[in-house]
């Protein structure tokens, strides 16, 4: 398979590895991007977690929470340009979408799009989306949504960067007051900033752990340390534990106080509340996650528009 400059650029953005290393990795793996990432990791040339993809598509994430904090929803609605993403008409539409998502009984995006539009039952959600596209004059897409219902606690949210990142946090807590909500919002901010994959270690699939162990073993073998095998095994386990702590929310260093983990912060809040507060689940959406936007030269784009007038 021919290795293109664009492929090298994409791999470099995903891993942070050097250009020549990326080119070699792609050549060694016949252009398979995932295998190339693993090749670089085994050589110790890439970070433990590859990026989810180039964050390129525009739009916003939004959240909605009921007054009692029991029911919440989060949506991502995409637009072609950042200009439209800041448009008040677009934002009002996204607010209506997330409010409807908080009331829906479906979990499927196609079924959601086929529902009656709550603000005008003569239309479906998809038909209202088409109407908004005609009004705003730019292609838009309701990409995804998720609804969260708290059974033994409440849900809190956090929006970062005007909608670039949205987070919902489901708690287990017997009280719903300002202190508890502030703690949950602080944890939501942590999730937005550090992006854990799991709440705690017990949630990590065993096959994921074994896969990472094999990667770290290959790294250690490539280092040619000459250390005894038992020392290398301890080194591998140490690196693995460090990596797992970084992807588990409660084990992460708490961003607002580097002396605490998130779990120790929650323990302190539990003591203040007089009742335990724990994180049951979370949802994190980042606008354009995994999507690539067509890149065009701005001057060429303006010239095209002028030629069309």
TrEMBL record:
Involved in Mg(2+) ion dislocation from EF-Tu, as annotated region? 81-84
Q: What is one Pfam family matched by this protein?
A: EF_TS
Species of origin reads Anaerocolumna sedimenticola
Keywords carried by this UniProt record:
Cytoplasm, Elongation factor, Protein biosynthesis
GO MF: translation elongation factor activity
Q: Determine the domain of life of the protein's source.
A: Bacteria
In Swiss-Prot or TrEMBL terms, this protein is called: Elongation factor Ts
InterPro entries linked to this entry: EF-Ts_dimer_sf, Transl_elong_EFTs/EF1B, Transl_elong_EFTs/EF1B_dimer, Transl_elong_Ts_CS, UBA-like_sf
